[in-house]
Amino acid sequence: MAVQVIQSLYEIRKAHMTQSSNGYKRHCAEPNVVTRVALKATINHIQTSRPDLGARLEAFLALPPIPKPERHAASDENDYIELPLGEAEFSEIARALGDVFLITKDSRVAALVHYWHGELRFSRDFQG
Asked: What is the pTM of this model?
């Protein structure tokens, strides 16, 4: 009997965690949500050519991250942050990174251009 109660509690807990985890994953896949790592890398790459945009983005680092489910093992560097930006702003960031890529030919910058591309990100087919 005690084993059945423990198993039932485990299944309830597991279902709750799955729902929480799925909700977290869905929220993190929203088009205006970015990783802290991508945000920091973007700031680093555009701060010289677009200090105005770099400063705007840097302010977003102070936003609270999306709350992680219990027992989520990722570090703070893997936080997801919901930005109060729309498609036009994401496209502006992608263009600024594109300008940097034209000068540097750095493949990491090219990946960030794709990551921030507003039209792609805000399309219905976006998968995070």
From this structure: 0.76
